[in-house]
Design goal:
Layout lengths: L7 E5 L3 E3 L5 E3 L2 E3 L11 E8 L9 E5 L5 E6 L5 E4 L9 E5 L6 E2 L10 E3 L2 E3 L8 E9 L10 E8 L2 E9 L5 E7 L2 E8 L6 E7 L4 E8 L8 E9 L8 E9 L2 E9 L5 E7 L2 E9 L25 E5 L4 E3 L3 E2 L6 E2 L8 E7 L4 E10 L5 E7 L2 E8 L11 E4 L4 E3 L2 E7 L8 E14 L5 E3 L3 E2 L6 E2 L8 E8 L3 E10 L8 E4 L2 E2 L18 E4 L4 E3 L2 E8 L8 E12 L20 E4 L4 E3 L3 E2 L6 E2 L8 E7 L4 E10 L5 E7 L2 E8 L11 E4 L4 E3 L2 E7 L8 E14 L5 E3 L3 E2 L6 E2 L8 E8 L3 E10 L8 E4 L2 E2 L18 E4 L4 E3 L2 E8 L8 E12 L17 H4 L2 E6 L4 E3 L3 E3 L4 E3 L8 E8 L3 E10 L5 E7 L5 E6 L11 E9 ...
């Protein structure tokens, strides 16, 4: 069994120029030895079989050192046997075995004694259903049917009648070549050999199939007279046989492979029939020649779908063009931007609101990635590199979203131009989406001694004993839940401020942190730690002090919509201090069933005398339209002390809550307490409130229920093709299989929108595939939930789809089934969570745009980064094959450290691309050099190329300004390879980093 191992490092020759016929150029090359010691006499061997005890042919067996560096590898033979006869030296070893369509298997670490023969057998379980195809080919001479060696094969995928280069490989000594991991589609295969006429064929690739190709090449009757030959030696002048030698042509600064060969027993190679041109050779020594040099690229693209009514759409071609900029008559896009003449186009426009806007731009960049500079109201906001498009037609249009939001006034000018050298893309329409309203505080009404500073436009002398204040009327387009923030200056960080919304105090006193100075350039942005409810149209916001100390000086107000509240949605009464969210059900506790001493207070109309020694109680019946997980909020009065309250839901105690005391015992003093955990409710429910048998409970007024997650009973769905309902567990069994058993359920939702879907399941082996149709359209993915710990209902887990789905208002049909061969997991209840409401009148960005990240992830993109741009330490390096940072973690604790600049302190989602091909990988994150490291275990990916990459989501807290984020390992194991990353604002309030993954 031969072993593939780099014996010599890759080396490159000088340039050989052929400018006339009958030239014979000699290019000798010395190869530097690879610094690998051999563990003499040792070998590792064994068998690799599948779960049915059948041998697996061509399984890849990789030998790793203690740092998970690849030492060498081998392949199994027809009997599933491998034999690593030459073992490079290492203190510790591990073996990983992989095979297409199988789950990898890894040994424990082990040591090798002198001349030890280690036997390691492996069982590879079935992996996910193959999502790729393969092209396997052989090239022969058309006249004599001999194998044609050293051909260069170019693979193009045909997309919209345009060819896109996917990979390049070479034919081996048997004339064979292979392209693997190909997505389905039509491919163009171009075969080039110096001594033959080129051949071109078209082949279709299908999922999970090997497309076989046989190509016959016609030998040229006329041949070029020049040749390039040489001897490959090592640094000791020892000849190297069987070294790989590739001939490259240098053409317009491009290095193009044109032929391939190996050295003979005397280290000689020879390329004949060489046309005029400049050439180099590259060479290295391996034991087995690999003919698969797939070149798979991956691009992280911002999501280009913006969903809101706050739109402005402008045609850039209608702007003022200058320099070489003109309108392209074929596309009606503006072209000629940038270049040496630096053509430009300027858009002058009016808006209805000041604010922070997301800017999305239609563009065409047919040949290369192109640079685009943007000025907003005379200030440059940076250079953006827009990825190239597939062609120059309108159908090839993409949409680029500027990563940072831009601040715009009522009257604005945006200028698009180049870098003075390169051509910028063609531009079509631009879309402005209002993400954050900005209101000018200086337009507010001052009272009680508050003063406007005309220079800084800040409001001073708020608060104090006279309680200076300012009120401002703001107008918003949606009734909803908002984040409220304001610019401020605070000299000592101990200045309190209170806020009233539409005449109701928020119930909190806010004390923003100290600013570094007292000039306008030192101003910071303070965001309230909770949301506020605003009405459609006018709202009055008042800022005041605590009646004693002076408040901070205030600047502009920033209002950001989080959730639209439908006009039919009831809200918490005005006397409540804390809003429980968008309540959809309101119940008055006084209508419940009272027991023991419980009674209705004639002063407040609340239920009083709950709890105590007699343990008075009240029970209310709730009839709901949908089963699901609900947020429960309770209006209460507890005038003298914090008071306990126990709650039973449908006969099950859900715990004791301590409700904070209120300022008095009047209705105006009432607060609203929201349970920290969601409660699961069905259509008909009973909730009981009572005490601990000793202490008095708070007096209770109204109860508010907000539906957080719909729950639908899959047991009520329609079964077909052999699927069966288990009456005990209420799980659906025998989904999938050869009959493709299925179940569909009709779900009814109150909003057209983007939803998260999850399902309860049992999977014995974690290898059961499932497919899903939404309203008779397949999602395009095959899902394989991880194995559950057992097979009883108590072992059931919740599997969440790694992407969102769109549902219509009202009824939607969801179907679960298999892939036609294997059985799917057993399925239970379906959980559906609304992420974003889609307004039917909302315009959308053109359909041509695409995204590789989930919709909810890319909607509010703020910042983009890449791990390869960080500071690399501890041996971390960039893998040139996939442009990811590799060798993170390990005993040297390789790391990459990014510096990120944040405009506003807060909680952010960090999305990242990673690869962990052989085992679950440990990742640690160190933020701003704090003493705390956050640790995560990222699941193994299905392979080691970018096509198998996964996305992780980590919730982190960042400060305003510069932040450092260090990614490293646990000091022992290798961390995953990392690449592009994006930071987004977070709608939630977790303070500790939380990990999710797709």
């Amino acid at each position: 069994m031969k072993i593939r191992q780099d014996k010599y490092k890759l080396s490159q020759s000088s340039i050989a120029k052929i400018n006339e016929d009958f030239m014979d150029i000699k290019l000798d090359l010395k190869l530097m030895a690879s610094n690998n010691k051999i563990n003499i006499g040792c070998s590792i061997l064994g068998y690799v079989k599948d779960s049915f005890n059948e041998p697996i042919k061509r399984a890849k067996v990789k030998l790793l050192d203690s740092q998970y560096n690849l030492l060498t590898y081998s392949f199994t033979d027809e009997k599933g046997m491998y034999h690593i006869e030459t073992v490079p030296y290492s203190e510790n070893y591990s073996v990983i075995v992989t095979s297409m369509g199988k789950l990898p298997s890894k040994s424990e670490f082990f040591k090798l004694k002198k001349e030890e023969k280690k036997i390691l057998n492996f069982i590879l379980n079935e992996g996910e259903v193959l999502n790729f195809g393969v092209i396997s080919g052989v090239i022969e001479d058309k006249n004599n049917f001999n194998h044609v060696v050293g051909s260069v094969i170019w693979l193009y995928k045909i997309i919209n009648n345009e060819k896109k280069l996917e990979a390049i490989t070479y034919s081996d000594k048997k004339g064979e070549f292979l392209f693997s991991k190909l997505s389905p589609g039509i491919y163009n295969i171009v075969i080039f050999n110096i001594s033959y006429f080129s051949e071109e064929i078209v082949k279709e690739v299908k999922l999970g199939e090997i497309s076989k190709v046989k190509v016959y090449l016609q030998y040229k009757s006329y041949l070029y007279k020049s040749s390039i030959s040489g001897i490959i030696t090592d640094e000791s002048n020892k000849i190297i046989s069987d070294a790989i030698v590739i001939l490259y042509k240098l053409d317009n600064n491009k290095v193009i492979p044109v032929s391939f060969t190996t050295t003979n027993s005397k280290g000689l190679y020879n390329f004949i029939n060489i046309p005029k041109g400049n050439y180099i050779i590259k060479s290295k020594k391996v034991e087995i020649i690999s003919s698969n040099y797939n070149n798979i690229t991956f691009t992280l693209v911002e999501d280009n779908t913006i969903e809101s009514s706050n739109y402005k759409i402008f045609d850039i071609a209608l702007g003022t063009a200058s320099g070489s900029a003109i309108i392209d008559k074929n596309t009606n896009f503006i072209m000629g931007i940038g270049g040496e003449n630096n053509g430009a186009v300027s858009m002058t426009f009016k808006l209805n609101h000041m604010g922070l806007y997301n800017l999305a731009i239609q563009y065409i960049a047919p040949d290369v990635n192109r640079h685009l500079n943007i000025d907003v109201n005379g200030s440059n906001i940076g250079t953006n590199i827009l990825p190239k498009t597939n062609g120059s037609k309108v159908s090839d249009v993409k949409v680029f979203t500027v990563p940072n939001s831009i601040e715009l006034n009522l009257n604005n000018t945006i200028k698009y131009y180049g870098d003075g050298i390169n051509n910028a893309p063609y531009l079509g329409k631009m879309v402005l989406y209002l993400s954050t309203y900005i209101f000018n505080i200086s337009e507010g009404q001052l009272a009680n001694g508050a003063v406007l500073d005309e220079d800084s436009k800040l409001i001073n002398w708020l608060g104090g004993e006279t309680n200076g204040n300012i009120s401002i009327i703001i107008n918003v387009k949606d009734r909803g839940i908002y984040n409220l923030a304001f610019k401020y200056l605070s000299f000592d960080g101990s200045s309190p401020i209170k806020v009233n919304i539409n005449g109701i105090n928020t119930g909190s006193i806010y004390v923003p942190l100290a600013t570094e100075g007292w000039s306008i350039t030192d101003a910071k942005l303070y965001t309230l730690p909770h949301t506020v409810n605003l009405n459609l149209g006018e709202n009055k916001i008042e800022f005041l002090g605590d009646g004693k100390s002076y408040a901070p000086s205030l600047g502009n107000i920033y209002i950001t919509l989080k959730t639209v509240i439908n006009s039919s949605t009831p809200t918490v009464p005005k006397e409540s201090i804390m809003t429980p969210g968008s309540a959809i059900y309101t119940y008055n506790v006084i209508n419940g069933t009272l027991t023991e001493d419980a009674q209705i207070s004639s002063l407040t109309n609340f239920v009083t005398k709950l709890g105590g020694i007699n343990n008075g109680s009240v029970s209310i019946k709730l009839n709901l339209d949908n089963g699901g997980l609900y947020n429960l909020a309770i209006q209460y009065i507890a005038s003298d002390a914090n008071r306990p309250l126990k709650i039973e839901v449908n006969g099950i105690n859900i715990g004791t809550n301590i409700l904070p005391k209120t300022n008095g015992n009047n209705v105006s003093d009432a607060k609203v307490f929201t349970l920290p955990n969601k409660i699961e409710l069905s259509l008909n429910n009973t909730i009981k409130f009572y005490g601990d048998g000793i202490n008095s409970c708070p007096d209770l007024g109204k109860v508010f229920l907000a539906l957080a997650i719909y729950i639908f009973k899959l047991a009520e769905g329609k079964l077909s093709n052999g699927a069966i309902l288990d009456e005990d567990s209420k799980l659906i069994n025998w989904l999938g299989g050869e009959t493709n058993g299925s179940v569909f359920i009709t779900v009814n939702v109150k909003d057209a929108g983007i939803y998260q879907l999850a399902v309860k399941y049992l999977s014995f082996d974690g290898q059961s595939p499932i497919k899903i149709d939404i309203n008779e359209v397949n999602t395009g993915s095959i899902y394989i939930p991880p194995a559950t710990e057992g097979w009883s209902i108590v072992d059931a887990k919740l599997y969440t789809l790694p992407h969102t789905i769109n549902l219509n208002l009202g009824e939607n049909k969801i179907k679960f089934y298999g892939e036609g061969k294997s059985f799917a997991p057993s399925l239970g209840d379906v959980y559906i969570t609304l992420k974003t409401i889609i307004n039917l009148s909302t315009p959308t960005v053109p359909k041509e745009s695409t995204s590789t990240l989930p919709v909810e992830a890319t909607k509010e993109a703020l910042y983009t980064y890449n791990a390869i741009k960080g500071i690399l330490t501890g041996g971390a390096e960039i893998n040139s094959a996939n442009n990811l940072v590799t060798k993170l973690g390990g005993e040297n604790d390789g790391a990459t450290t990014l510096t990120v600049f944040i405009d506003k302190e807060g909680i952010y989602n960090l999305f990242g691309i990673y690869i962990a091909p052989d085992f679950n990988s440990h990742l640690k994150i160190f933020i701003n050099e704090t003493s705390k490291n956050y640790s995560y275990e990222l699941p193994m990916t299905r392979g080691e190329t970018l096509i198998y990459s996964k996305i992780f989501i980590i919730v982190i807290e960042l400060k305003e300004g510069n932040n450092t984020i260090k990614f490293h390992g646990n000091g022992k194991d290798l961390a995953p390879d990392l690449g592009p990353m994006v930071l987004f604002t977070n709608d939630f309030e977790e303070k500790e980093p939380v990990l999710q993954y797709y």
